Amino acid sequence: MVVGDLDGNVDRMLDAYESAENAGADLIAFPELAISGYPPEDLLLRPAFVAEAMAAVEKFASRTGRCAAIVGFPEAGRDLANAAAVLANGKVQGVYRKHELPNYAVFDEQRYFAPGTEFGPLFVIGGVKVSVSICEDAWNPNGPILSQAAGGAELVVNINASPYYAGRWRERETMLATRASDASVPIVYVNLVGGQDELVFDGASVVFDERGHLVARGKQFEEDLLVVDMDVRPTFRKRLLDPRGRARGPALAEVAVSDARIVDRASAPRVEPILGPVREVYEALVVGTRDYVHKNGFTDVLIAVSGGIDSSLVAAIAVDALGAEHVVGVLMPSRYSSEGSVTDAELLAANLGMRTYTVPIEPAHEAFDAMLDPIFAGTKPGVAEENVQSRIRGNVMMTLSNKFGWMVLTTGNKSEMATGYATLYGDMAGGFAVIKDVPKTLVYALCHDRNERAGRDLIPRTVIEKPPSAELAPGQLDSNSLPPYEALDPIIEGYVEEDLSVAELEARGYDAETVRRVARMVDRNEYKRRQAPPGVRVSPKAFGKDRRLPITNRWPG
User: Fold this and answer.
1) Residue 172 resides in a domain
2) Residues 106 and 159 reside in one and the same domain
3) Which residues are tagged catalytic?
4) Burial class (CB in 10 A: 0-12, 13-18, 19+), 114
5) 419 with 522: CB under 8 angstroms?
6) Which end of the chain is more exposed for a tag (fewer CB within 10 A), N or C?
7) Do 450 and 327 fall into the same domain?
8) Domain of 147: which CATH number?
9) How would you write 488-514 as a 3-class SS string?
């Protein structure tokens, strides 16, 4: 789905609907706000957008037959609702409105929507009493699902746009197993797939039976039509044996949609395997990069390949996302570039099959030195002179982007973004920051994993083994400016992702001076991060939507 592409989203859903009908399905479910795309953000404040979204729902409804479709959309009424329509037999059969509106992390739903108040109706589809809920409704243990089951639901369909972060699938499945077992009702959990700005949605849709046992699972990071036959008869017996599923309130109203029928299938439901933890992050980066580039109308990307591990990883991700023919590497050697860095960058490009250009920056560097020499005379060379090189490179990259219409992918990682170990208007200049939420230690793990899957050193071993360096001064190493990454990354995780104070981190046993130093770097570089391009979110708290701290801020941490 693409945010704002109402007609395109409907057309894609209709293609899937036709496939479901051909498979003999009684019901197909699509993700939360599938009509508008998720998250539509302040497009929801435009009445014309909401009205056109409703027209798109009506268009979809007019194309439906016996197979019912559950479709998420923004609904205008007395207020605005995050809603799901049940469509069948050419019309809208009914609407459910989301109760639980998340307003934490990347979510802002209370900015836009009013909560629903009704749990029903129940839609009798294929002879089964089906209730509908939306995303956060499932996370509240005393929320709509429990009331819907008590009101007579024999199957709950929960539609979602649940953003990815590493290991998120495990939390979801644990929650859903508990919710299904507690309510004694099978749950169909449908999740969005794809990238939207910095968010990635990982799919992995699942079905749990009334005992909380996994029945089926769709693919991660791929759109997937998962066909599952559900026998809801055991639900009644489960409720007889387990008082948690017994009816405690009035029965919900029912809307007749389609009668029961028997379909004989020989195959068992699919249960797709879960990717390993490092591979999972890699695929999220690939999907996020591919969708950001393509959904914003670009075909080709440009990467400054330095022979370092960060740019090498970004190049590998870009090639996997877009194809080698759509990735261009630029080598920009300086007076401080080692011979090994140049040959490593050339070997990487050859391994990946991407084309490269070489633009030596020495002529521009000499010109800058000459221009600035009268002003800098009598001062000691330092960071300002080093950063001139990075800004020359940033200028070259953006000029090539401007000339040929290629998007620049930046190569900074989370460790660098956190500490400000990056040059504003230099290596931070670009359209998309692929690994801005990937700590340096994970960068190494991702490179090892990609090579292991390739069965060869796709990313040259010399790139992985050499000490990291910005190569902006003679003999420069990252370790001259930063603590070792093995010490740095856990402190950043605690300070940024867990919101721990300096005192709390010291109490965990981290070196006190290192903690204070890292906290100071993180705090004083908020202004840089505000000016950085968006990048893929893979952690529970990324810089961007997740973390909104004032730039002007004297809180000592």
Assistant:
1) yes
2) yes
3) 32, 98, 135
4) middle
5) yes
6) C
7) yes
8) 3.60.110.10
9) HHHHHHHHHHCCCCHHHHHHCCCCHHH
Q: Which residues contact 513 (CB under 8 A, 6 or more apart)?
A: none
pLDDT at 231 (0 to 100)? 85
pLDDT tens sequence across 221-276: 999 999 999 888 777 777 767 766 565 668 899 999 998 887 666 678 899 999 99
- Considering just the CA atoms, what is the radius of gyration of the chain in Å? 26
DSSP symbol at 185: -
pLDDT at site 245: 59
- Find tokens 């919101």 and name the residue: 499
CATH code where residue 345 lies: 3.40.50.620
Question: Rounded CA gap, 556 and 213, in Å?
Answer: 48
Task: Judge if 205 and 336 occupy the same domain.
Answer: no
Q: What angle do CA 322, 323, 327 make, to 5 degrees?
A: 80
Query: What pLDDT digit, counting tens, does each position of 12-41 carry?
Result: 999 999 999 999 999 999 999 999 999 999
- Confidence (pLDDT) at 236: 73
Q: Whose CA is closest to 286, among 101, 450, 131? A: 450
Phi then psi for 418, rounded to 5 degrees? -65, -45
Number of domains into which the chain is organized:
2
Within the chain, which residues score under 70 in pLDDT?
240, 243-249, 263-266, 471
**DSSP designation for 220:** B
Last residue of a domain, one of 478, 503, 534: 478
Which tokens go with 498?
A: 């867990």
Which of 187, 125, 137, 129 lies closest to 162, judged by CA?
137
Polymer length of the chain: 557
pTM of the complete model beyond 0.70: yes
